[in-house]
Design brief:
The protein is α+β, with helices and mostly antiparallel strands. Helix content is 34%, strand content 22%. It has helices at 2-9, 33-36, 50-61, 80-90, 120-125, 128-131, 133-139, 187-197, 223-229, 231-247; strands at residues 19-23, 40-44, 66-70, 74-76, 94-102, 108-109, 112-113, 150-151, 154-155, 159-163, 166-167, 173-174, 201-212. The strands form five sheets. Strands 4, 5, 6, 8 and 13 form a five-stranded mixed beta sheet that branches. Strands 1-2 form a two-stranded parallel sheet. A two-stranded antiparallel ribbon has the order 3-10. Strand 11 and strand 12 (173-174) form a beta hairpin. The longest helix is centred in the last third of the chain and has 17 residues, at 231-247. The radius of gyration is 18 Å and the shape is globular.
Amino acid sequence: NRLLESIWQADLNEINYEIIVVENNSGDDLSNLNKLNKKINLIESPKNLGMGGGNNLGIDSSSGNYILILNPDTIVGLDSIKILYDYLNNDTTVGLVGPKLIYPDASLQYSCSKFPIFWMPILRRTFLGDYFSGLRDSFTMNDFDHNSIKAVDWLMGSCLMFKKKIVLANQEIFSPHFDKRYFMYFEDTDLCRSIWIKGLKVIYNPEAVVVHNHGRDSARHPWYIALLKDKITWIHIFSLFKYFAKWGIKKVTYGQ
């Protein structure tokens, strides 16, 4: 696995770490992983809990003070983990930090966004987006150069770092987790909004770079076909409604 290889090659000499691999009932045989490296802890879920639920298993099984969420289709740079760790460790106002994501051809992946408004998925999936391109592109922060450290509303969940337990200003203990009501989609948006609600910042740090071989499964068909035949599209739609049922439809932004 290229992700595991990139972690073993990364600059982690000063960090005591463990690797938790969650087999989310995909059917893949990962039984040999433990033999590859003694730092690997394999967790096999009896059922598919979705992206958030699977990651929660890993979070709860971890013994460290810091959590790094990584999708299996990512490859970390040599110093990327160390950069994220140092940034989070040195600024107590930050609750979550993520890297610049790039595609395998080194082109930029838009991984930081503003919190969605209710009709944003329509603008992104249909021809109406061409008539409201400014609003659509503002959501994905296309006008941002993506080379500056910046506080943002939310980050794509492919690579996120946060502390396992955070002591807030009022001495409350906050333990970030993904909301299990989302099987897939919006769990990263929801987590980042929870971070902001607790009075902490979400930071995009492009000094750390991670390759993400990302494909938008929910957008693989035109919208009028996807509504009829694509299960992933309907999962996305249901998650959208769950998000707005939880947070309301009022426009809000916390990033700069």
